[in-house]
Amino acid sequence: MLSSLLSTVIAVILSVIVMGLGWVLAKRAISDREKNSPFECGFDPIKSARLPFSMRFFLLAIIFLIFDVEIVLLFPVLASMTGSFSLPLMIGTFIFLMILILGLFHEWNEGSLDWAQ
């Protein structure tokens, strides 16, 4: 009990010291206009470095990540099917795949997959 309390106190004190040291060292960085501006071969930048991002491309990337993660969730099902056949596992996998297919058709009908318009 005493040792866990002591280690907690030491961890908190060490964290405060490290944060304080980082804060003090960060104050030494001098903010300079030349250092904060983007560099384009020695010339002044022609356009802004922060261009507007295509929201349709962003949504397509998010949809891809969602479906990619859902496909990864199917790998343990495939691994468990090699050992033995289980009817509840098959029903659950079928329901999961139907939800994926319905979501894909919904995105397709909504037009979210046509990002090059």
TrEMBL record:
Protein name: NADH-ubiquinone oxidoreductase chain 3
GO molecular function: NADH dehydrogenase (ubiquinone) activity
Keyword Chaperone applies: no
Annotated organism of origin: Nassarius fraterculus
Family, as annotated: Belongs to the complex I subunit 3 family.
E.C. designation(s): 7.1.1.2
Top-level taxon in the UniProt lineage: Eukaryota
Alphabetical list of Pfam families matching this protein: Oxidored_q4
Function field: Core subunit of the mitochondrial membrane respiratory chain NADH dehydrogenase (Complex I) which catalyzes electron transfer from NADH through the respiratory chain, using ubiquinone as an electron acceptor. Essential for the catalytic activity of complex I.
Broad enzyme group: translocase
Membrane topology reported for the UniProt record: Multi-pass membrane protein
Signal peptide: none
Catalytic activity: a ubiquinone + NADH + 5 H(+)(in) = a ubiquinol + NAD(+) + 4 H(+)(out)
An example Gene Ontology CC term for this record: mitochondrial membrane
Transmembrane segments: 6-26, 57-79, 85-105
Annotated compartments: Membrane; Mitochondrion membrane
InterPro entries: NADH_UbQ/plastoQ_OxRdtase_su3, NDAH_ubi_oxred_su3_sf
Alphabetical keyword list: Electron transport, Membrane, Mitochondrion, NAD, Respiratory chain, Translocase, Transmembrane, Transmembrane helix, Transport, Ubiquinone
